[in-house]
Amino acid sequence: MDRNTFTGLFLIMIVLAGSFYFFKPSEAELKKEQARVTADSIKKAGVKTTPAAAQAAAAPTLDSAALKGPFGANISGTETKSVLENEKLKLTFTNKGGKILSVEIKGEKTYRGQPVILFDGNANKFGLNLNIGGKLISTNDLYFSPSKISGTSLSMRATYGEGKYIEYLYDLKPNSNNVAFNINLNGLNQVIQSNNVTLNWETVLLEQEKSLKNEQRYSAPYYKYVDQTPDHLNIAKDVKEDLTKGKVEWIAFKQHFFSGVLLPKDGFEKGNLEVKVSTEPGQVKWYAANMQMQFNQLASQNYAMEFYFGNNKFSELKKQGHEIEKLVEMGYWPLKYINRFVVLPVFNFLEGFGWNYGLIILVLTILLKLVLSPLTYKSYVSMAKMRILKPEMDEIKAKVGEDNPTLLQQEYLKLYKQVGVNPLGGCLPMLLQLPIVMAFFFFFPNLFELRGQSFLWMHDLSTYDDFIKFGFHLPFIGDHLSLMCILMTVSTLIYTYFNNQISGATGQMKYIGYIMPIIFLGVLNDYPAGLNYYYFLANMLTFGQQFLIKKMVNDEKIHAILKENKSKPQEPKKKSKFQSRLDDYMRQQQQIKAQDKKK
Question: Which parts of the chain span the membrane according to its record (predicted)?
């Protein structure tokens, strides 16, 4: 063997020896492989493993350094559960994270007849994120030591060391939807390396209602800055928003008809909220909040808070104070004021009689129509005048021709002025009624009182009545047809027909009114039966009003009055600025038209 061959073999041996030394599996890897081989052999033998055994096999091996580090005694453990309950709530706690694992609202059922559970399972997180020794510690991963103080109070404690611990105190008040919550940080001023601590809360909303689409439409995280009006994140898409404009008074994880609200006594310094629309079956949305609280480096630091877990009934939320009742969406300005200060008080008054909610909606609609009857009367008379004037307007049109619309409008205005008719007289009363009609569009879908209330064939006035089920999805319509929505649409079409007869509408205007009811059929088919029921009643009562007004109003008398007005000498009146500008504009348009003809 020559020298070069010997040298090459020697180097190869060194490389092989080094690779065996540096790339040999660690003790943890050997244990992991051994667990895998054992699991494979069990599987081949046909032996089933229990979830607990599988979890134990998959549990990471903790080294001695981790056990001696921050909260070393609380890093591992066995999950146990505790329960606190009163007449309204049943709270299940887990020692893993020391958090509320699930919340059941007593006395309420889902559409499928199951108990209403706001959230449940380990996908929900609640705890502190602490900077200790340059390392982020999440209490959600720690195993706390539970201790029941009384039948309604529970303590959860995680120990850092002697005299140093985190304690969560929960106190469920009797016959209440409120849970007092206190965080005690004892002796941790020596180890927390920050001037603030972060509270992390994540929740998966569970489906409660018949229409998942509607639940998602009316669910969103809400928040309120101190001395400001509550606001919420976008309801239609995934979004994350930083809350940095001031102290945050409270945050709320709002579902369509139920909410979880967290109210810190001293507010949150700042934070962020996040929402994602869930695509998993039985889930509505995922919420997350990371809120910062000031840490004053005290030997004993306390954070006092309170939870509200309950329904979104306006009166119940109002009792909580802090403008939490604004979780109930009442619409935009001015609709929210109409709903809050007019419609809701009347509804609550009628509710006091103990009537069926279908009857309450009927009486509410009758009262509304009585209040608006002067406007309906004015609108009817104005449209009747326009109908009576139509023959004269047709004569003017034939005389002037359609090729000069500016001159035609001038002649029309002269006629209106002579007979004393306002062409907008029929529209203005209807426009004044429009905000009230639109206000109900927000009122009924957000009204908790209608939830689960039946009337006639409608089993739940807070959701759609799927009188006809297709078993498949159709574009624009969906997978069902709502009978009340059909009745509403038919009544609107009939109303449009008679309205055209009264106003004498012709041409395109005659047919435009028929398009909107067809559009509303697709839009409102998925909306609550209570809303469609109200619109149906409003149409039927309008028919009744117009029938009575028709008996009171004589077309011949109106025609005689118009003739008399036309025969009176027209006294010159000072034109308004608007009228002067309108005349100038029409004169200019007429001149331009004349010049175009010369060319």
Answer: 6-23, 359-377, 424-448, 481-499, 511-527
